[in-house]
Amino acid sequence: MSTTAIGWIGLGKMGIPMSEQLIRAGYPLTVYNRSKEKEAFLQGMGAATAPTPRQLMETTEIIFIMVSDDAAIREIFHGKGGLLTADAEASTEQPTAAIPSPKGPHTVPPGRILINMSTVSPAISREMAATCRQQGHHYLDAPVSGSVKQAEDGQLVIMVGGEASVLEKARPVLEKIGRLAIRVGDPGAGNTAKLVINTLLSVYAQGLAEAVIFAQRNGITTEDLITLVNNSALGNVFIKIKGEAIIRDNYNAAFALKHIAKDLRLAKDIGLNTPLGEVAYQSFQDAEATLGNEDIIAIIKQLQPQ
Question: Please, what CATH class does the domain formed by 193-303 belong to?
Answer without folding.
Answer: mainly alpha
